[in-house]
Design a protein that fits this description.
Blueprint lengths: L5 H6 L5 H4 L5 H8 L5 E2 L6 E2 L1 H8 L5 H12 L10 H18 L7 H8 L11 E9 L8 E11 L5 E8 L14 E5 L6 E3 L11 E5 L2 H10 L5 E3 L3 H5 L9 E5 L4 H16 L3 E5 L6 H8 L1 H8 L5 H7 L2 H7 L1
Parallel strand pairs: 8-9, 8-10, 10-11
Antiparallel strand pairs: 1-2, 3-4, 4-5, 5-6, 7-9
Length: 328
Amino acid sequence: MRILCCVEAAEGRRDSAQSRERNITRDATYSVLCSTAHKTDGATQEHGDLLDLIRLNRDLRGLREAMDEARLFLALPRHEWKPQQKTAVSKSPDTARRLFRAGRPIAGTHAEAYLRARGITGHIDWVALRFHPRVWYRESDKAPLEAWPALLAAITDPGGRITGIQRTWLDRNRPDKAPIANPRRALGHLLGNGVRFGAAQPAPAQAGVLVAGEGIETMLALKSVLPVLPMIAALSANHLAALDLPPALRRLYVARDNDMAGIEAAKRLHERGAAVGIEVSELVPVHDDFNLDLYRLGASRLIAHLVPQLAPDDLARFVHAEDLRGLA
């Protein structure tokens, strides 16, 4: 992107250094608008360019405001940049993969504290989940960038390739979502894919059965009481209805939310499963969703609620014997 041509800048020069009482020279400002080079401070090893100095000196919030300040100093018009949507969309899976790789396992992090506060009692350190201490968030195109810690969830296709991520921004001080307008956003290709909890290649005893639901917390709540069952979070009711069904799938449990969107998603999966010979059953929560069930009922009562909803031949494979004995 060409922000400002040096020749155009030179033609538009105005001797405003004294009148504006700036400590930043006119020529240096022109040069930084024409250059992408960053310099390193020999004393501190900090790197940046003159725009960084302008931003800090004028207490500005980001690069765009620093560039506006530089243009104001030069009496030049603001450059209006409009992103090319097609390019952004095509690169989003690569951006998602880079961000996910930059994260770290969530054990012992703010992300684990958030999930534990949501009542998740089971295994937490899944390969599909990572934590990043500073993920950019912008409420709108004109709003300033903000950095918040975030839980990252890898969205994968049936072959295990990451096609996107879901970012859940977290409060900096409390184990809760960040106090922002949209604390949860997805990036990349979601349709048909989801966040998977379980082995990439299930053991023979687990093969052919899958539990699919909407939210990450919902599926982690079910994983807390049914840890052996393979599960996938589709992230929304619409995406749940459009989930790609593995060819070897024999039985699908739809862990639906207790709302009309969840009911419609389950209905759609019933239709799609019947068309290809997959048995589809519903797991229905007591409250709004299974995360709320685990939080309010506890693990034992949640298992007692789930057992009648499971096929008899799945009880021995996926429910611990001690849990079944406790229900007798």
